[in-house]
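[agent] plan:
  1. take the single chain provided in the ticket
  2. run structure prediction with default settings
  3. attach structure tokens to the ticket
  4. add a short note for the reviewer (M.T.)
[agent] executing step 1
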Amino acid sequence: MVTYYILTHRFKRGMIEITSETDYRLFQRYLDPLQKERLPNNIKFRIAAGSKKYDIIRLYERGEEFYSQRVIDVLSQFVDMNGKCYPIRIDGVEEQYHVLNNLVACPFLNRNESISIDDPCFLEVQDTPLHIFGVENTSFVIVSEEIKNALLKNKISVGSGRCHHWRRSLPSLAAAAANHVPARCQPTFSLCGASRSLFVVRRLS
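[agent] step 2 finished; step 3 output follows
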């Protein structure tokens, strides 16, 4: 069974949140892990709140996430990150943070039915294992167990030292997934701080 994790932060008081004078509609367009284009080079950020430089920080107004060089270095052990991330400039911050982009997109099978936090989300991946991917029409970044273990080994700081797991029963999962595609099913856990139950539905060959 393959287990996947949501790569995200758990908000802690004092964590850096950044902002910019740029029209928020640009962020809505470009700060998407599936987006192939990059933010314009002339965009600068500044600190809007907080002072603690965790390895994952977020946009003050909208919550989109940015990843430290330490995170990128860990991801690069498993995936060629050329073309999958790019740096941003933050006034007064020497540490380098990045946007993740151009990730493989996996379908969100029950998006229309999954409308509350208590509703599980069903994703579809191919049989070929992926170490990192995004989910259509969401900001989710999903990583493999190997990446999760490497992040923990390298003491990546995401605002909390614990992993928070949400799970549902496999019989219920299999029954729900059967309404979408014939598949093998397994639960997906969060690396840190996610509020949704995610399940990966893998198409049978």
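[agent] step 4 note for reviewer: The first helix runs from residue 24 to 30.
[agent] ticket updated
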